[in-house]
Structures are given as C-alpha cells and as structure tokens.
Design a protein that fits this description.
This is Sel1 repeat family protein. This protein is mostly helical and 288 residues long. The protein is built from 13 helices and 2 strands, in the order H-H-H-H-H-H-H-H-H-H-H-H-H-E-E.
Length: 288
C-alpha cells in the first residue's frame, strides 16, 4: 500500500494530483479562519491572535459573510476553539440563539472562557432558549475566574442584581474592580454608578466622577452622559453648561439617547408654538 508522508515524498503521479489539492484546501481553510477572525472575533477574547483587533458588535451587513466564513472554518479538522466561539457570535447577531448556544457550547467545552460568557448570557436571558439562570451563572463565574473580562463584569452584575444567588454589593464591587485592572470601561462605568448611589459603600460623587472620567477616556458613551449630567448639575464640581454640552455631544455621537435629549434641552431651551398651541420648533443658542 502506498503511504503519502508529504508532498516531497509522494509517488510521482499521486503527489502531482493530491498535494496541490491539499495545499488549496489548506489555503481555503486559512482564508475562512482569517475572515471569521476579522468579522466575528471579540476584542477581549483571550484566544484571539494578537494581530486580530476584534469587534464588539458584528455589523449587520457583515453578519452573512461572518456566518459563511465561520461555518466553513468550523468544518475544517482541528479548528481552533475560538472559531466555534466566533461562529456562536455570528449566529447570535443573526438572531439564531439555538445555533449560537450550540456553537458556544462546543467552544466552552474546549475551554474557551469567552464562549462560557456568551453561553451563560444566553441561558440567563433565555431569549429563544430555555432559561437556565443556575447554569448560566456557573458558566459566567467560571469564565470570570479564567480571566475573561466580560465574564468579570457580568458576574459583578449578577452579584449586584441578585440573579441566581443573594445580592452581594461587596462582591459586585470586587469583580468590577478586577475588571478595571484589565482596563474595562464598562466596569469603570458600573462601579461609578455604584459609588454615586452608595451601593455597597458610602456615596462619593468625587470618586464616582473619577471613574466616569476614566471610562469616558475610553469612549464609553454612558460614562460621557454621566459627566454631562454632573457638569450640568454642578455635581462634584462647578456648574459648567458648555462642558455639559461637550460631554453630551460626545455621548450622543456614540449612540447614547439620553445625551441626545439632554443636548437638545440645553442647546434649544425655548420652544416655539403656533396660535393653536402646537409646537413648531425650538430656539437654539448656537443657531442649531
């Protein structure tokens, strides 16, 4: 029986036929993996290659291409576990939660912390799946302990909300603090909210504002909205309408709807009504 050890060692005719085909298959698989990584990798996935940026949200226009590439990549033998996680993300953004859960579970079973978080969130929310808060929390806790930053912030939120266990603000603060150590803007924002509201500790607007400022420096839209509200109200500092407007503008540009409404209120405080009392416009200070 003829055994093919490598292209170089293959018998003449068989090598000529098979080795180019094998090379082409490998190239196609590599291209699928590269496309799957580019379109569906998560920025904080510990398995993500260093040269892959990742995306927080898969753009709607990219979902079909991400699904196609990730499905093809996952079909290859010995595929890295992150590809199953990325396939799960593609399915999730395609609003196919059952398929997303199956893909996440394959990656999670192989040790992907990011997939544990993804599956855990799906199980806790129960959108399109049978809700299972207990298993979801267990997966998220495992991911957090493995160093997944989204696992940390989600576990903190579960402690704060008392989901799957008794509420524990001290543990919530602990896990937000751990996530902040790895530069999580969401954790900075959430711990800022706990600090301003006095959840699990004394109210401290100055400390809360400092956390919002750290998150805002990383373009966290909700933190920018909070800084606008602080500047507008003179909270933890002097009132500064212009600073508030600047914060609200940045937050609104990043998609925060509350900031957009606040910006409209500050820029255009006076409404114009016709004789029937119907609003027909507003007067804006900057001519907007």
């Amino acid at each position: 029986m003829l055994r093919i050890r490598s292209c170089a060692a293959a018998a003449l005719t068989l090598a000529t036929l098979l080795c180019p085909a094998l090379r082409m298959h490998a190239l196609a698989a590599s291209a699928d993996i590269a496309t799957c990584d580019r379109l569906a990798a998560h920025p904080t996935d510990l398995d993500k290659p260093a040269d892959v940026t990742g995306v927080l949200d898969i753009a709607g226009a990219d979902v079909p291409a991400a699904l196609k590439a990730c499905k093809a990549a996952a079909a290859a033998p010995d595929v890295p576990r992150r590809i199953w996680m990325e396939l799960g993300r593609a399915y999730e953004f395609a609003r196919q939660p059952a398929e997303a859960a199956n893909a996440y579970r394959k990656a999670a079973d192989a040790g992907s912390a990011a997939a544990m978080t993804g599956l855990g969130v799906l199980l806790i929310n129960g959108n399109g799946l049978k809700k299972n808060v207990t298993e979801g929390r267990m997966l998220i806790e495992k991911a957090a302990n493995a160093g997944d930053v989204d696992g940390m912030t989600n576990l903190a939120s579960l402690y704060g909300a008392g989901a799957g266990a008794k509420a524990d603000f001290a543990m919530a603060r602990k896990w937000y603090a751990k996530a902040i150590e790895v530069n999580s803007s969401e954790a900075m924002y959430q711990l800022g909210l706990m600090t301003q509201d006095g959840d699990g500790g004394p109210k401290d607007d100055v400390a809360a504002k400092a956390l919002f400022e750290k998150a805002a420096a990383l373009d966290h839209a909700d933190a920018l909205e909070r800084l606008g509200a602080y500047a507008e109200a003179g909270r933890a500092g002097e009132k500064d309408t212009q600073a508030a407007i600047a914060y609200y503008k940045r937050a609104a540009a990043l998609g925060n709807e509350d900031a957009g409404k606040a910006l409209e209120r500050l820029r255009c405080p006076f409404g114009i009504k016709n004789r029937d009392g119907k609003s027909v416009g507003r007067i804006c200070f900057d001519g907007g």
